[in-house]
Design a protein that fits this description.
With about 180 residues, the chain is an alpha/beta fold. The protein has a single domain, classed as Uracil-DNA Glycosylase, subunit E. About 35% of the residues lie in helices and about 15% in strands. It contains 6 helices and 6 strands. The chain has a 6-stranded mixed β-sheet with strand order 1-3-2-4-6-5, with helices on both faces. A hairpin with a 2-residue loop joins β5 (about 140) and β6 (about 145-150). The longest helix has 16 residues, at about 80-95. The chain is globular and about 35 Å long. The termini are far apart.
Length: about 180
């Protein structure tokens, strides 16, 4: 399901594969506008070898980053149910447990934030109480990890200016800074 560097120190957690992106192309955040925004930022911040992701064999490689999602199939109207989240949580947990070098989780949106917290708790990491609130630039310590919040690169956020390129780049620069710390 996920895509990227198996030795990643930074893990991005999205909502679900897009029906007209990942479901069509076979790779998460590939072939849709959210992915265009995301991979361009990852390229500008040194995590990707190219700024575009068109199809699964386009040569895109991630260095130090891995992209996953909470839900494993495209939900109707891009709104996953609680049951879908809960059914997919064990799969995400197993995927995250394989990323042994991970230090930073970047949650793309509130759903990704909640899913990352739940998955890390399922893996036995103590989560803060009260639950940390999602926001763009929010940071929370979860066991040995840092969770960073980033508005989702959906058209609802990028077309309205709620999320700008400098805002996105700043999150990935912060993730790099944290993951480079001893």
């Amino acid at each position: 399901m996920g895509f990227g560097d198996p030795a990643a120190r930074v893990v991005l957690v999205g909502l679900a594969p897009a029906a007209h992106g990942a479901n069509r192309t076979g790779r998460i955040f590939t072939g849709d506008r959210s992915g265009d925004w995301l991979f361009a930022s990852l390229h500008r911040t040194g995590f990707a070898n190219q700024a575009e992701a068109r199809h699964a064999d386009d040569g895109l490689r991630l260095d130090g980053a891995y992209v996953s999602s909470v839900v494993r199939c495209p939900p109707p109207a891009n709104r996953p149910t609680t049951a879908e989240r809960d059914n997919c949580l064990p799969y995400m947990g197993r995927e995250l447990s394989l990323l042994t070098q991970a230090q930073v989780f970047v949650a793309l949106g509130g759903f990704g934030w909640d899913g990352a917290l739940r998955a890390l708790r399922e893996l036995g990491h103590e989560t803060p109480r009260p639950k940390p609130r999602f926001g763009h630039g929010a940071e929370a310590a979860v066991g040995p990890y840092t969770l960073l919040g980033c508005f989702h690169p959906s058209q609802q956020n990028t077309f309205t200016g709620r999320l700008t390129e400098p805002m996105t780049d700043a999150i990935f620069e912060r993730a790099r800074e944290i993951s480079a710390s001893p």
